[in-house]
Design goal:
Layout: H1 10-16, H2 23-28, H3 42-45, E1 50-61, E2 64-71, E3 83-84, E4 87-89, H4 96-108, E5 116-120, E6 124-126, E7 131-139, E8 155-160, H5 161-165, E9 170-177, E10 180-189, E11 192-195, H6 196-212
Parallel strand pairs: 1-7
Antiparallel strand pairs: 1-2, 1-4, 2-3, 2-8, 5-7, 6-7, 9-10, 10-11
Helix pairs in contact: 1-6
Length: 214
Amino acid sequence: MKPALPLPGLSCLRQALAEPLPGTAAQLELAPLPQASGSKLYEEAEGGSLKAGVLLLLYPKSEETHVIFIRRPSSAHRHKDQIAFPGGQFEPGEDAVRAALREADEEVGLHSASVEVAGALTPLYVPPSNFCMYPVVGRTVETPRFTPFEPEVAEIIEVPLACLLDPASLRRSTWRLERGPVLVPFYAFEHHMIWGATAMILAEFLAAWRRAGF
């Protein structure tokens, strides 16, 4: 059993997320292979893409750091049944931080005022939906009370960060998707599989965490 990880200080988190970030190389470690047609770096795609802010939230629960994920419902227009970070499309005049915090409030009832923003990760282009995702990292010093917005959130999943850092949680399996057989890396937690864009964003964060030596 991995030791519990306490919530790091805001200044330490900000330092860990200072450039240079682990970047695309860390993201690609968790990319399904072969990559989807239309795969591009975000710099190549962001001009003609939709834009979404997502929140990677760290918070204390039972004296250790957790990360929240959501599972999209089977009725979702995009990414049905997949595990994601809270987040969604920019509204007019928003940047990544405002979009991510607004969506987290709407989807899981997280009060924006309670979130301390630590920084951002490398944007990631998702070809199937033509979205460029802008990950924001934040923390709360208190344990939030989450309430799922049922039309958009089928389940809230709270994962101890130590579990995600455990090498045993990283697995690979061949799946048959619409485009054929694909080797899919994913993080396993209980019966959940965190894969795709969410896993790629998470991989960069975990690389930054390890580099910081928390």
